[in-house]
Amino acid sequence: MAVSPPVDDTTEALDLTVRGFLFCLRRDDQQRLTLTAPHLEGYGAITLDWAAPDVQRRIAGGKKQLLAKAIGLHKHPHLKVFDGTAGLGRDGFTLAALGATVTLAERNPVLSALLRDAHRRALAHPALAAAAQRIQLLSHDSSTGLAPAHDHDVLYLDPMYPDDGKRALPSKEMQILRDLTGGDADADALLAAALHSGVPRIVVKRPSKAPWLAGRAPHLSLEGTQARFDLYLNPVHSSG
C-alpha cells in the first residue's frame, strides 16, 4: 500500500485515505501515536501500548500458555522467532518478554509506524526495556519472500482472517484494521512460502473454527477456546 506523505513513528499529525477510507494519526496527551477511523462512528483510537493490562496478562500466562508452547519456548527458552505478520505486535512482544529474540515484520506502513512508536516507548520503560531490546522491527511484506527469516528457529504467522460476511461482527479494533489493510487475502500463498523457507518450525495462528490455511493439514494443532495454533515442521528438523 502506497502512503504519501510517508508515515513513521515521528509523525505528529497526519490524515490519509486508504482504500477509500479516511484514517487519522495523532499524538495523544501521553505522546503516543494513535490511529482513528472517522468513518466508523463511535470507534475509539488504536494505540500500541505493550505495558497495557491485556499484554501484561498474556506475559503473565508464562511459557505454559498455548502461544509459548506452540513456539516451543517451554522447551527452548531462547529461540529466534520471525513474526511474518506482526500486526499490532502483541504476540511478538509477549514472546520477547518470555525470552525469545523476535523479528517483527509488517508490510503496512501505518501499522509499522505504530509498532516503531510502541517499540521506542518500550525501550524507555524500565519494566519493558529488556524485552524490547530483544525485538527487531522490519518493514517487510512477507508475501514477497521470507529470506529475512532464514536464520530463525521459528516462523510465526497470524494472518488476518477474511471477512466473508458469514461470521459475527469483528471487534471494533479488528474492523479498523480490516478497513486499513483489506485483510490478508494472500495468506495461503504466505504459508506456501513459509513451507519452503527452510525455517525448522512454522506456527500459524487461526480462529478456533477456521479451516487449515491453504487447506494443508498441520503436523500438530494446539486448540484453545478462541484460537488454534497449527504447527508445520520441516522434515529435516521434525524431531523438534
Notes on the structure:
- It is a single chain.
- By secondary structure, the chain is α/β, with parallel strands linked by helices.
- It has one domain (49-237): Rossmann fold, CATH 3.40.50.150.
- It has 7 helices and 11 strands.
- It has a 7-stranded mixed beta sheet, sandwiched between helices. It has a 4-stranded antiparallel beta sheet with strand order 1-2-3-4.
- Strand 1 (13-18) and strand 2 (21-27) form a beta hairpin.
- Helix 1 crosses helix 3.
- The longest helix has 15 residues, at 109-123.
- The protein is globular.
Summarize the structure.
The chain has helices at 53-60, 66-71, 90-97, 109-123, 129-132, 172-181, 187-195, and strands spanning 13-18, 21-27, 33-36, 46-47, 80-83, 101-106, 135-139, 154-157, 201-207, 220-223, 227-233. It has 240 residues and is of the alpha/beta class.
